[in-house]
Amino acid sequence: MKLYMLMITIMVMIYSLPPTIVNADTNDKINKIEQFVEEQRAISKIPGIAVLVVEEGETVFQKGFGYADVKTKTPVTSDTLFEIGSTTKAFTGLAILQLEKDGLLDRSDDIQQYIPWLKLKYKSELQPITIHQLLHHTSGIASNSIIHIPESNQNNAIEQTVKTLLEQPLNRKPGSSFEYATINYDVLGLIIEKVTKQPFDTYIKQRILEPINMNDSLVGLPQIKSAEMATGYKIGWMREQTYTPPIYRGNVPAGYIISNTNDIAKWLKLQLGISQIYSIDKKIIQESHIHDQSVEPFDKDTYYASGWAVMDKDEKQYLFHAGENPTFTSYFIMQPDEKFGVAVLSNMNSSFTTAIGKGVMGLWEGKNVTTNHSDSYQKLDKVVTILCIVVASLGVILGLLLMRNVLKIKKKQRIGVSLSGKRIFLLIIHSMSVAAIVTLMIMFPKAKGLTWEFIKVWAPTSISALFYFVIVTGIIYYLYGLLLLFTKRNKF
């Protein structure tokens, strides 16, 4: 009897020990993650961040950091809604695979079978493009086609967006290589509308979101702002700035699902095959993770699947994707073999969102994470802010000098003078120099294949201010120069 009791005691000790160790280990990871996210949020200036970790069918970490709205001090919670940006593409890719399973299309089909007027050329020659190539960004559509996406809230906005491609040549031969172009997925969205004969948002809502109970999620921007919707921000003047970008309804299939960590937990579990809801065929999910290795990898050991990047590293496979909209960013990363995934949502356009997601993944894997990340927008904003101060100060000085000389004219301390040959020459040089500065400012984006309208939407708010500061300072400088050229000191 004593031996029996001793065996029971030993067994109880053995079976009670691991959970204690696991709990201690989990708590340690959670503490490190919370500290890491708070540190990165402070450095990045991101107002609000929501972080999610799922493992083996469970949500093991879910927390909001900072504010959904800075002005009202509304905290981020698991209910807070964010635009998820290009992580939307996996939903659109899955919809295409669903339609293929239903026999309504085939990935090898030429897209003109569904959109006959979409005739695209490479080096002046018409090119066949397949649905497969759109899915994997090998269609040849240029990455900078994003700058031509029109502002629109019309019902035919997706078609309007796709029609912009008719004026743009392909950047490479279809199927030859990878080039990420967000508009590929807008074309897929239009194909979905043509095949299903219903709006894109309706199909995604009914066939993907509702079947997996993503009941809080929206497809496209809501017509009436939800109380749970986070306010979007951009960096500007070295801090967060509220900004309301134009509506790009024609870009919804590529970047405008709105969701929260409650619903994204269901999405990641579905992708990992650990969801209790199997209304979407597991085989289709697995099919969406198959990467296209017919072209060179776009990054080291990284290929593109149907809305997912797939990387093989250290004998492990990672599925991931970042999302970036003018005032929101997201990052999803999964390790399917370990049934483990991380999602980060934030209400600012910042690459720190991706860095945080990778860091959280590393910390949960038990790695030491040291992130010395820098965001290009943040660095640019710092430089531009300094330039704004310099240009504005120069404008103020020139303005004061201009006003002083105007007063001198009123007091007859300066009088008009006829233009001599030297003054005419200086006038021409002065006019040409100011015209050159203004022209360079206006034309500068074209050298980068951009437009000022695009920069205004996507870049830090300080850049638009710099543009106007330079123009205004240039005008003041020009007027000051004219005044000096057309007047001289009155020697009593």
Strand content: 15-25%
CATH class of the largest domain: Alpha Beta
Radius of gyration: 29 Å
Average the pLDDT over all residues and give the rounded result: 93
Q: Which strand order spans the largest sheet, edge to edge or round the barrel?
A: 3-2-1-15-14-13-12-11
Major β-sheet, in short?
8 strands, antiparallel
- DSSP summary, beta strand count: 17
The class by helix and strand makeup works out as: alpha+beta
CATH architecture of the largest domain: 3-Layer(aba) Sandwich
Number of domains: 2
The number of helical segments is: 14
Task: State the end-to-end CA separation.
Answer: 125 Å
Silhouette: globular
Tell me the name of the CATH homologous superfamily of the largest domain.
DD-peptidase/beta-lactamase superfamily
CATH topology of the largest domain: Beta-lactamase
Helix amount? 40-55%
Q: Give the low-pLDDT segments.
A: 7-22
Describe what this molecule looks like in 3D.
The structure is a single chain. By secondary structure, the protein is an alpha+beta fold. The chain has two domains: 22-374, 3-Layer(aba) Sandwich (Beta-lactamase), CATH 3.40.710.10; 378-489, no CATH class. Helices cover 45% and strands 16% of the residues. The protein has helices spanning 2-44, 89-101, 131-135, 157-163, 183-196, 200-209, 252-255, 261-272, 282-288, 352-364, 376-410, 421-447, 452-458, 461-486, and strands at residues 48-55, 58-69, 74-75, 82-83, 121-122, 125-126, 218-219, 233-236, 239-242, 257-259, 302-304, 309-313, 316-325, 328-335, 340-346, 414-416, 487-489. The strands form five sheets. Strands 3-2-1-15-14-13-12-11 form an eight-stranded antiparallel beta sheet, sandwiched between helices. A three-stranded antiparallel beta sheet has the order 4-10-7. A two-stranded antiparallel sheet has the order 5-6. Strand 2 (58-69) and strand 3 (74-75) form a beta hairpin. The N and C termini lie far apart (125 Å). 38% of the residues are buried.
